[in-house]
Every structure is written in C-alpha cells, then in structure tokens.
Design brief:
Elements (H helix, E strand, L loop, with lengths): L3 H11 L3 H4 L6 H14 L5 H15 L3 H14 L4 H13 L3 H14 L4 H13 L3 H14 L4 H13 L3 H8 L5 H15 L10
Helix pairs in contact: 1-8, 4-5, 5-6, 6-7, 7-8, 8-9, 9-10, 10-11, 11-12
Length: 204
C-alpha cells in the first residue's frame, strides 16, 4: 500500500484523494477531445491497432494482466507511435510497484508522442513519486500547455509548484480550478509535506 504521502500524490493522477478530486472533474466533452487528439497523433489509427488495443483493455478488465502486458508489448512493437500502449504498460508496472519501469515506458512513449498530454501528466505523477518535483512540474506544465481545458492538469501544476517550495503560488494556481476553501486545504497539506518532520527522541 501507498504511505500517506504517496497516496496523496497518487491521487493527482487518479482523482482518488480529496486534495485533488474536489472540484477538479473534467467534462465529458473535454475528455472526448483529449482522446481524439491522442488517436490522431498515433500512427496506430489503423483499425488493426485500435482492435488490438481494445482487446488489451478487455484483458486488463478481466484481470488477465500478464496476457494484456504481452499483447501491449506486441502492439508497441508493431505500431511504435501508438501512445496509449506506452501508458497502459506504465500503469501495469506502477500497479506492481515498479516505478522505474513505469517511468521507462512513459519516457519511451514521449519520444514518439511528446504532445500526448496523458503521457506528460502521468510522467509527472511518476516524477512526484520519485520526489523529483522540478521534473514533475515540467511534465505537468507540458500537459497543461497541450490540453489547457483539462482542470486536473492545472491542479497538478499547482501541487508541483507548491512542492517545489512555493506553496503560496501553488495556492493561487489551485484557485483557478477549485474553490478557495479547497485551495486553502490543499495548500496546508503541501506545507505540511514541506515542513521538517518532528522526531521523538529515544527514551532511556
């Protein structure tokens, strides 16, 4: 299981934790536009690539993760510019706790699809988990530049800005996508993460 800090940061991508989830849901239209952009960027717009990817998603939903992983590797080999395959492989490895391997697939995906906002965002999440907050901010800013309608990416920029030592600027950025109350709550959590951890001296 994630510890408290990692669970909070993981919520950046998954929307599973209050620090990000409150007030940051995207509209279905924006999500549809993002998916459309990703498909247009991929050379795997052929029916075969889409069919192969659909089967991989079905296998994952059925819990056949190892089979899905093998199929995704094959899809990536045959259609190297099909960016969703890299993202799914990264997700599988992150679920297993293989953070370095997940980052490897995201970086490989970004080599062929640098304007894929989902890859950029998820690379930012992995960078957060590696405590590389400067790199995380770069990825989140790239995702926001590509998909400025995506509120979650903007919230991720706010989080990474705060974790880079500027929580007040992070607070201001949060207020672009959440209520003032939520922005204040998120900022206090970030400040808590930045504060030196108190330790209890050992007793004799």
């Amino acid at each position: 299981m994630w510890n408290v800090t990692k669970r909070m940061i993981a919520g950046v991508a998954l929307g599973a934790v209050a620090i990000i989830a409150s007030g940051c849901a995207t509209t279905q239209a924006a999500q549809k536009d993002a998916r459309g952009e990703r498909e247009e960027q991929a050379d795997g717009t052929s029916p075969k690539a889409k069919t192969m990817y659909g089967m991989c998603r079905i296998m994952r939903a059925q819990g056949k993760t190892e089979q899905a992983e093998l199929a995704l590797v094959g899809l990536m080999s045959e259609y190297p510019s099909f960016s969703p395959a890299y993202n799914d492989l990264a997700e599988i490895n992150l679920e297993r706790g293989h953070l370095d391997r997940a980052m490897h697939y995201l970086n490989e995906g970004l080599k062929v699809a640098p304007t894929d906002p989902v890859l950029q965002n998820n690379a930012g999440v992995c960078a957060l988990l590696q405590h590389d907050y400067a790199k995380a901010l770069e990825h989140f800013q790239a995702a926001t530049a590509i998909a400025p309608y995506e509120a979650r990416y903007k919230a991720n920029v706010a989080l990474a800005t705060g974790l880079n030592g500027d929580p007040e600027t992070g607070r201001a950025l949060y207020k672009d996508v959440v209520s003032g109350e939520v922005a204040d709550y998120n900022t206090e959590i970030v400040k808590g993460l930045l504060a030196p951890q108190e330790t209890t001296p050992p007793t004799d």
